[in-house]
Amino acid sequence: MRITPLQTSLLCIFSACVVLAQAQQSLLLNSLSTFSGSSISDPATFGLPASSSLTVSVAICSTQASFAPLFSLTNGSDSFEIQLESGFGSWTGPTSNNISLVVKSVGQSTFEVAVSDNGTVHEVLNTLPLFGDSTANQAILFSPPFAVETTSEPTYPNYALPLANSSLPNAPASPMFDLVLAPSSAQLTSLPQTGCSLANVSSTGTVELNNTWLRGSGEWTSQWFVDGLSPNTNYTAYVIQDQVKVSGPVYFITKSSSFPCSLVHSLPYCPSTAYAVPLPPPQSPALAYDATSIPTNISDPLLQYMTNFTTMLLTFGCGRDLYSPLQTCSDCQREYRSWLCSVSFPRCSEPSPTPSESSSGNNAQTLFSALQPQPSGVAPRNPFFPVVNYTYNSLLPCLEVCHAVDRACPYFLGISCPVTQFNADASYGVGFIDSGEPGVVGHGTAGVAQDRWGNVWCNGN
Fold it and tell me: What pLDDT, on a 0 to 100 scale, did the predictor assign at position 356?
């Protein structure tokens, strides 16, 4: 069959269209795509949808790449380079049908591209994961809060407060959270700080529990209980939300192999209690204490105290009479619960291997946690706890936990906290969050009860 010149021209045009279609792939609106150097050309061009406000974000997934690809937007005559920081980059602006994303120097890299008209998809979150506590081989960690408990303030004359042992409300829909945990010697911080890069890391330990939990602050989080860690080892932890948003890193060190205490967690009546307490190891197969295994001779008195306090509080005209323009009876009960739990569950700890320094101008000082030695055979702070035959260090509650109750509750309850100038440091950690000066809020040596580096100065519950 003889091909005419017209057919030859049409064939050439068709072939050119096929080549162009192969060279430029269109990215759909509100889509997330993954590409690798072995599957695309170099340079690679991607068509973008038209939008009045389009966000294009990119994330490097390769952990071994010696260099990152170059990303730019072009309309054929002008271009804008997307700058990468820690493996992330993004651009937001109006687009027309002739705007394209061009990727150069792809090499063997793997990367993600997200196209959205609802803000940046790839993101480093400002809120950090929370380190609960550790033993020699276990740790409890929490994701950043993803929702706040929605409750309406009770009203008079039917002003009702939660029961002492109320069950948790139904949890809201949760994002997908993944915990990435590895010894700090693995140098996770040297990798691209992206979800797809960190997801390639083999996480350390065994996750024995991962559930949604409502902490005492009224914030919903994801909770992990991890077993199989190594004693006296520095760890780095990240939380990845919905595969694309990264929270962290935070750091902690496991306790020494001789650390004698056991972890307790998931107590609905003490929702922020997630740390080591002076109790013997729980009966197998339990790895830690929770609401099903905590001894009733410990939980029953606490619940009775909470019930009695609530009964006394409700003798006030809650919802009718104001004792504060800022606080309500609900606030009072919440803060009292937090204080009661922090003093009812003594917290075990160990001295930091290297005390941290707090520098404020020329007044640098070395910080030590509020630890109180507990000799073997001595009655614990909570008389309902057993007398143990080992020595441990008790981490004292932060004085601010007591002050929060004092500020939140009616004066007739007679709540009083020890005075800083006299004997407060005998039973509380003083000066870490607040300075300790009368009437001064903040300006403490650390400013917080614990920091992202694993230092826990006092028990803030």
Answer: 57
Distance CA 275, CA 193 (A): 29
Residue 18, pLDDT above cutoff 90: no
Classify 274 as helix, strand or coil.
Answer: coil
* Spatial separation of the C-alpha atoms in residues 347 and 276, rounded to whole Å: 6
* Per-residue CA distances from 362 to 359, 378, 446, 458 (Å): 7, 42, 16, 25
Rounded Cα distance, 149 and 170, in Å: 10
Closest CA to 101 of 141, 140, 72: 72
Q: What is the pLDDT of residue 207?
A: 98
Comparing 264-278, 320-334, 423-437, the range with the smallest average pLDDT is 423-437
Residue written as token pair 């120097």: 105
Report the candidate in 452, 416, 445 with the shortest Cα–Cα distance to residue 430.
445
* Two structure tokens written together for 205: 């330990």
Q: What is the phi/psi pair of residue 261, to 5°?
A: -90, 165
Contact at 8 Å (CB) between 228 and 288? Answer: no
User: DSSP strand E in 143-203: where?
Assistant: 147-148, 177-183
pTM of the model: 0.90
**Is the Cβ–Cβ distance between 272 and 461 less than 8 Å?**
yes
Which secondary-structure segment (H or E) carries 206? Answer: strand 206-214
Region 260-288: what's the mean pLDDT?
A: 97
Burial class (CB in 10 A: 0-12, 13-18, 19+), 380: middle
Residue 327 CA: distances (Å) to CA of 70, 148, 321, 407, 460: 54, 19, 12, 8, 20
Q: Which amino acid is at 118?
A: N
User: What tokens does 221 get?
Assistant: 């989080």
Tens digit of each residue's pLDDT (9 = 90 or more) over 82-124: 999 999 999 999 998 889 999 999 988 999 999 999 999 999 9
Q: Where are the beta strands (DSSP E) in 37-136?
A: 44-47, 51-60, 70-74, 79-82, 88-95, 100-104, 110-116, 123-124, 130-134
Alpha helices, DSSP H only, in 314-434? 329-344, 399-408
3-state secondary structure of 196: helix
pLDDT digits (tens, 9 = 90+) for 410-427: 999 999 999 988 889 999
Rounding to the nearest 10 degrees, give the CA dihedral for residues 39, 42, 47, 53. Answer: 110
* 3-state DSSP percent of the chain in helix, strand and coil, to 5: 15, 30, 50
Question: CB–CB of 7/62 below 8 Å?
Answer: no
- Classified as helix, coil or strand, 197 is helix
pLDDT: is 314 or 64 the higher one? 314
